[in-house]
Amino acid sequence: MNERPGDPAQPDELLELRGLVRGFGRVPVLAGVSAELRAGEVLLVTGKNGSGKSTLLRCLAGLLRPQAGTIRLREAGVELDAAARRRRVGYVAPDLSLYEPLTAAENLAFFCRLRGIAPARGDELLARLGVPESRAAGALSSGMRQRLRWAWALLHRPRLLLLDEPFQNLDAAGEAGLRALLDEHLAAGGMAVVATPSALALPRVAATLALDAPAALLGAA
Amino acid sequence: MSVETDARGADAASAPALSAASPATTAPASRWLAEALAVFAKDWRVELRSRHALHTLLLFAVTTLITVSVALGPLGVSSSERLAVLPALLWVILLFAAAAGLPRAFVHEEETHTATALRLAATPSAVFAGKVLYSASLLFAVEALLVPLYVAVMQLPVASLGDLLLALGAGGLGLALASTLLAAIAAQAQGRAALFPILAFPILLPLLLLAIELTRGAVGGAVGDGVVANLVLYDATMAVAGLMLFPLVWNP
């Protein structure tokens, strides 16, 4: 079973992290991270380069296994295990690419087929985000690629968005469009975890998680 | 690290734009098959645009075929040795062609960072099945071009076309199954280039021996007892092992 009915006393939408630990080799990156997020809220994750922001998001997405600690995600009153969480989250990160030889529309159509969604959803998102649908993903500018990542992440209408530097390489219009999408997502009861190395003004920020870079990683005393 | 709590947003309204958690977390057979076919079709579409694997496989196969034919030629091998040597050479050519192209199945996904998107959207076993279908069809395409050339150039007599097709089909499928699983394992490692041949040697050896034996039978007219059954059993074992092991390799 991927899902189990939750405790009716618990909120329907909940992301809860307790004591997350993750390192690489002997380098500790996350040392006991805890936080909680509910419907319509943003968890802002800040920190210098190498402080573990992306590692935290990869753990939340189920792309990395924490060495200790727990991640609980409840959606619509149902608690998801790691495998279900992996397929449910919407993930935008610099280390995610789509297939360069395929056009933007073909890329989204492929992922629509994987997720059992009508391809019209991909076309709708591309039109909304202003991504040229017939251009190969490899021929898109870095800003357009970022918009395409967002379109990919929103295809299945996820309740939890994991956004790693979500507005990088975007022009003002692009950023405004994506901020509007994020607002709509939150207004509809979605949750978002946003990682950023610099200050970022966002609505509905429920908590800010400031990650301190491990001394070993930064070479500091 | 620290957590500061700001004003908690009060809007926890219903979520009309958000989907329920249930879809796609478990894959019934039809959904699983649709996912596998989507991966298969995507891989072919990407391949037809880039032609990396197809060119590598064909170039390797044709170069090796020409080398063998020039070095040995139809008259370079005595008729008594022909039945023993030529089927083995055919499978060596196919093995090297496959080894040159098929391990890219997952390495390319990892290197171009598309593996993350695939991991987050697809059922792992369906990804494996789609990749196997793609690798097998790629190999069959190479066999369809290479084997008639090889038979003609080396003047290889074929006593039983059915057995030859069975050897190429079951042998090619086994090669695709084993290569796909090994490619997935190797793609996660640091020494990718070295790991694949090291892993492949013990796993592909029984397959190659069986495929050579069946091809020899197809050429000579007498297939040994149990060769076909063992070849099919090898494929079935690799398919089951792949479907069971791949999710462990693919996901953290």
Q: What is the compact description of this entry?
A:
Chain A is of the alpha/beta class. Chain A is built from seven helices and ten strands.
Topology:
The complex is a heterodimer of chains A (221) and B (252).
Chain A: E1 3-5, E2 14-24, E3 27-38, E4 42-46, H1 53-61, E5 68-75, E6 78-80, H2 82-88, E7 90-92, H3 104-115, H4 120-129, H5 142-154, E8 160-164, H6 172-187, E9 191-196, E10 205-210, H7 215-218
Parallel strand pairs in A: 4-9, 4-10, 7-8, 8-9
Antiparallel strand pairs in A: 1-6, 2-3, 2-5, 5-6
Chain B: E1 2-5, H1 29-50, H2 52-71, H3 73-76, H4 79-101, H5 104-111, H6 115-121, H7 124-153, H8 161-187, H9 192-220, H10 227-250
Name the features.
heterodimer; A: alpha/beta; five-stranded antiparallel sheet; five-stranded parallel sheet; globular; disordered C terminus; B: 252 residues; mainly alpha; 77% helix; disordered N terminus
Description:
- The complex is a heterodimer of chains A (221) and B (252).
- Chain A has a domain at 99-157.
- Chain A has helices spanning 53-61, 82-88, 104-115, 120-129, 142-154, 172-187, 215-218, and strands spanning 3-5, 14-24, 27-38, 42-46, 68-75, 78-80, 90-92, 160-164, 191-196, 205-210.
- In chain A, strand 5 (68-75) and strand 6 form a beta hairpin.
- Chain A is α/β, with parallel strands linked by helices and 221 residues long.
- Residues 215-221 of chain A have low confidence and may be disordered.
- In chain A, helix 3 (104-115) packs across helix 4 (120-129).
- Chain A starts with a strand and ends with a helix.
- With 252 residues, chain B is mainly α.
- Chain B has one domain (50-250).
- Chain B is 77% helix and 2% strand.
- Chain B contains 10 helices and 1 strand; from the N terminus they run βαααααααααα.
- In chain B, helix 7 crosses helix 8.
- In chain B, 43% of the residues are buried.
- The model of chain B is unreliable at 1-16 and 21-26 (pLDDT under 50).
- The interface between A and B is large, with 70 and 48 residues.
